[in-house]
Design brief:
By secondary structure, the chain is of the alpha/beta class. It has helices at about 25-35, 45-55, 70-75, 110-140, 160-180, 200-210, 220-230, and strands spanning about 15-20, 40-45, 60-65, 85, 140-145, 185-190, 235-240, 245-250. The chain starts with 14 loop residues before the first strand and ends in a 13-residue tail after the last strand. About 45% of the residues are buried. The structure holds nicotinamide-adenine-dinucleotide (NAD).
Amino acid sequence: MSSFEDPVVDLSGQTALVTGGASGIGMTVARRLAALGARVVVADITDLAGQAVADEVGGVYLHLDVSDPGAWSEASAALVDLDIAFLNAGVSTRIDGDADATEAPMGEVTERAYRRIMGANVDGVVYGARAVLPAMVARGSGHIVITASMAGLGAIPFDPIYGLTKHAVVGFTKSLGVTYGPAGVCTSAICPGFADTKIISPDLATMLEALNVPIISPERVADTVVAALAAREPGSLWAVWGDLPITRYVPNPVFDNLEVPL
Ligand SMILES: NC(=O)c1ccc[n+]([C@@H]2O[C@H](COP(=O)([O-])OP(=O)(O)OC[C@H]3O[C@@H](n4cnc5c(N)ncnc54)[C@H](O)[C@@H]3O)[C@@H](O)[C@H]2O)c1
């Protein structure tokens, strides 16, 4: 057991936004944050499932396509009092039902598939941070947790564009951590290995099983989010893989004393 397991966290009186909250990791984290006392805003594009999660956790549902900058502007009233923003919505390059939008080879990736994953996984995180940061900075408190992936730390040969997006948000997390940490706003990212959610296609699940690659539960990923929230270390990355303990990576603080406009 690492020291990051089972921290005592009380989120009573706090409000948390969870993007991609209708399914998988987002749904599980929404439940966990609510169980720890938070009021949860469940945001997604899958309205029925998202509303059901919001009802279950006693929160509110927000239809929000994270890739749409206008949607973030329209949602601004719902985002002013946030203590936690879990920027989690994401997709792989594959689009279910699209014969021509495979994850590989690169020469066959369609423009539509590429724009869709960049929109959700990169634009969605940038727009989300842009929307929530001003109020957090004004209050001098807040925590943005970004769902990256082990694919943001190492190679993912069968979906290199997915790897690109997750490396991008890892870099974004490190910089936001250094930039906004001194203003009281923490940014951290979680880097889970494969987790049992809808993003894992049946074909991928079969391949992972054949390779003996562990698939963890979304609850285990929620443990990692709670570890990041408890530690409040700006720019930190929280990795979890198989049965291994939750591991923290803190980047070298090269620019700690650099003053930049907020
Ligand atoms: N499951 C894994 O193996 C794994 C591992 C590491 C990281 N992740 C990341 O975890 C996050 C959540 O994925 P998951 O595994 O729970 O998959 P999932 O498919 O179960 O959930 C993703 C959710 O995001 C929503 N979503 C997709 N595009 C959206 C958009 N443009 N705007 C708003 N919501 C949108 C979907 O409707 C869905 O509810 C993703 O960022 C994913 O890359 C997953």
